[in-house]
């Protein structure tokens, strides 16, 4: 019997949708998640989905959730999981790739548990960009991308949320042996040397 394209067969022979490969990219605000994701995309064929970028696009689109999301971002707070997960699911479906870097998600235990429950996807592994606050603060204050949350007051709130809510998620995956901790305080190219070594050579783009 033939199989449905892009699907596996379950025990009873019915088609089971094949889950995409997902790598969660975590780290404090300004640790360099977006910068490194862009380089991974260039070299390893992943699609980069930044939860923060999707939420900012949702504000711009004039969505009914826009004002709520804008207020949460301005305060450095975490938007309810159902909103962010819907955006991630839609972006994955629309894209069609089967390998995704999910950047800045899960940000708390609620994000983590809800994503697993709703999508049935477990990350293949987790990149954790580890960087001292002093360095992250310096980077954010000179980022100049016009982000409403790149001001010292909001940055301090984001650091607190990261320590209290996001680090426990990193620890959760660490206990499962899934975390690659990377020294993100080094220059961009040196960080990427470490990142490159984590991705299997067989995934490397061949020109
Ligand atoms: N290794 C590095 N050394 C110096 N500057 C860096 C490094 N990595 C990134 N930067 C710079 O720091 C700023 C923040 O980087 P980036 O936007 O990638 O961080 P992020 O982790 O995605 O932050 P956020 O969580 O706020 O989205 C950018 O201006 C970027 O160019
Ligand atoms: N899972 C997430 C991710 C982000 N947010 C909100 O967006 C802000 C910016 O996120 P970046 O990853 O681009 O820094 C973040 O401070 C949160 O307010 C979220 O709620 N949930
Ligand atoms: Mg980012």
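Sequence proposed for the structure above (207 residues):
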């Amino acid at each position: 019997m033939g199989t449905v394209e892009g699907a596996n067969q379950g025990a009873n022979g019915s088609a089971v949708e094949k889950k995409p490969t997902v790598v969660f990219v975590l780290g404090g605000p300004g640790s360099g998640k977006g910068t490194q994701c862009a380089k991974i995309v260039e070299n390893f064929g992943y699609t980069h989905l930044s939860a923060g970028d999707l939420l900012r696009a949702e504000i711009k689109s004039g969505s009914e959730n826009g004002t709520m999301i804008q207020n949460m971002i301005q305060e450095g707070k975490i938007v309810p999981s159902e909103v962010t997960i819907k955006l991630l699911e839609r972006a994955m479906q629309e894209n069609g790739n089967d390998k995704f870097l999910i950047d800045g998600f899960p940000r708390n235990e609620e994000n983590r548990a809800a994503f697993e429950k709703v999508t049935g996807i477990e990350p293949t592994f987790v990149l954790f960009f580890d960087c001292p606050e002093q360095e992250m603060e310096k980077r954010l204050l000179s980022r100049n991308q016009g982000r409403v949350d790149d001001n010292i007051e909001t940055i301090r709130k984001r650091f607190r949320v990261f320590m209290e809510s996001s680090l426990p998620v990193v620890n959760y995956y660490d206990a499962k042996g899934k975390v690659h901790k990377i020294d993100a305080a080094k220059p961009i190219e040196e960080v990427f040397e470490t990142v490159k070594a984590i991705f299997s050579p067989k995934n490397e783009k061949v020109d």
